[in-house]
Amino acid sequence: MRSTLIFILNLLVLITLDSCGKKELISNYERPDWLRGNVFEILHEKGNYTIFLEGIEKSGLKEVLDGKTITTVFAPNDVAFSTYLKEKNIASIAQMPIQDLKRLIGYHLIYYAYGKDRLQNYQPEGSEGYEPNFAGLYYKHRSRSSDSITVEVDLTDGRTKKVFHKDRFLPVFSQQHFTTKGIDATANYEYFYGTGIWRGNQGFNISNAGVDEYAIPADNGYVYLLDRVIEPLNTVYQELAKKNTYSDFIAIYDKFKSFWYDEPTSLNYAAAGDSLFIVNHGPLPPIASEWSYNGGGGFPDYANLGQLAYRANNVFAPSNTAIQNFYQEYFSPYYNSIKDVDLLPLALVMYNHVYLGNVVFPSEIGKNPDIKTSFGTPIVFNPTVDVQDKAMASNGVYYGLNKVLVPDMFNSVTGPAFRNPKYKMFMYMLANTGLYQLLSSQNIDFTLFIPSDETLKGTIVGESYLFWSEGNPLVYGDENVLVENENGILVPLSVRQQEILISESMVYGKIDNLSGTKVLRTRNPYSYVYVTGGKLHSSATYNTPDLNLTISRINGDWYNGNSYETSLALQADARMIKSTITGAQTISNPLNQYAEFSKLLARVGHLEVGRTLPFLFGNRFILFAPDNQTVLNGIASGDIPSNNTELAEYLKSYFVSVPDNSLSDYPFPGFGIQGVWNTTKLTGYNLFRKLELLDRTTHLELKDIDGTLIPISNELPKLFSDGAVYKISRLLKK
Length: 734
Description:
Distance between the termini: 107 Å
Structural class: alpha+beta
Pfam families: Fasciclin
Radius of gyration: 36 Å
Strand order of the largest sheet: 2-1-9-8
InterPro entries: Adhesion/Biosynth-related, FAS1_dom_sf, FAS1_domain
Protein name: Fasciclin domain-containing protein
Organism: Sphingobacterium bovistauri
Helix content: 25-40%
Shape: elongated
Domain FAS1: 36-230
């Protein structure tokens, strides 16, 4: 009667849990059909589990086995426990400090009742949400083992923080787990646990222990009899921190250490007025967290059963020697030590050594396409040759490597920015925009033009110079590229503005020299870099000869192109044709060679203030503009209408609307941008005068309505924010 009442009370508690976990708890943690007494009674009757039961009583966990809650117990026999105590140089279990004993015994008790079938193929959504492709992969289960609250100093603010350590998770590796992954169970399990340990061919191993007898039903759960004591596992972070071999890796990781206030835990476990925190590592994967989910995603931390059971921190930690070799090759010309390197490149290196997903076994390395860095590149190394240490952990696994897995962006055209601090502002803009990933492509060649911080601080974006704020040097993400707003206050440059600026510096294709004439697309639409006369030009410097842009190649074996340092930031000309052409009579005006054409536009009212070129309706456009001498000759010969009404319509023949003709690019020789296009001159209802542009590969030509061919000058067009101006030396027919 007592057991039945306890079961009913426990079931009522389960029903009150979060609705997301309700289905799981009802389907997976139901009371067994066959009752043989509670777990404590069953083990006591067997007689050879006395040391384990003594530990249960001394650790204060007897009420769990007595039937106060539903549970699954993994019980090592007396021989196994005696062997364990001897290996640890402990005379008897009574000599163990109480916290150590709780830690050990609690690791043999997991929440809820699991029969054999459910434990070897745990499904967090129960039978209704069964996932055959994930059979056996939900491998971790919450135990009753935890560490005491610790106190740590937060270096970012100098305050002490009380850190709460949640219950450890216990890995259960079933044959089904390895079958689902298509890998050999014995070889992969024993890679971590040692030869001769795997006994799970017909079921599973409980971490380092084999099972002598499966799923003995009790009135409050199940008992599994083990051949070994389960060694309590630490987090990956704790495992690595214990080894001096990886002290540099941990020191770098701890540069991002932060403390996340855990409100629910503080309410439930903290003393009055206290706050409890979880150790986090800012933007990096939380390898120090006991749980792979800590709330914040719409579920309480305990209720996201799928992520808690499935997700592991797989850490591929390079040794100190490997990190120092990496430092020497990549950073030693610019920094005094690896610890002095800017936080951003260090973060990218750390990112490249952690995979958040299911636990990774050696046979999966280089073969499972899902195992890749956060940058999308496969994680590949030789588990036999490149690994010097490895260990299973409560929240994942680690492989101790003898090499650094270098992120691609350190060897692509972005390499100089991520290695050399003189390009720090550009580096942070690459990261903020995410464009470093595109620029690290293995399939596309680029030329990247990188301005130094000094150059960028002399660059105007909008109405303001650029500024740099280092922020708190201990807090990653506190850095900012700034501009001055209309009120004179420094504010962060928007990500979109950063993207535009970086995209102007990206050229598709590899520029090896400045010989000849070249037109190369940047990432921004309708924006190009010119090579002509032995110099490189952005549209801004090409339109303004006084801006002297020089470049110098940055030495390095960049696998997807070339990188150059520039004396000016590459920027598109922000001026508009509409506003520039009105002042074309000024000698310094970039459209001065079209001053006579500008006069014609003004004569017929097309350049009125507030109504400049109104027939374009604000569209981007191409202007095929006759130069001054051609216009003067046309006026003298009568080829240009003298009547203002006729002239107003005639001049529209020189303008082509880009969107109305669905042009995704401006025409340049060899680009293949050609066809019959509508000009802006109406000839009837919804009918327009036509111009045909012909790409002759080495030059461009226009074909007029009567078939006359008009050469387009080989002089590169002037590009502005609203269009492009191409020079022609013949007039269109009236």
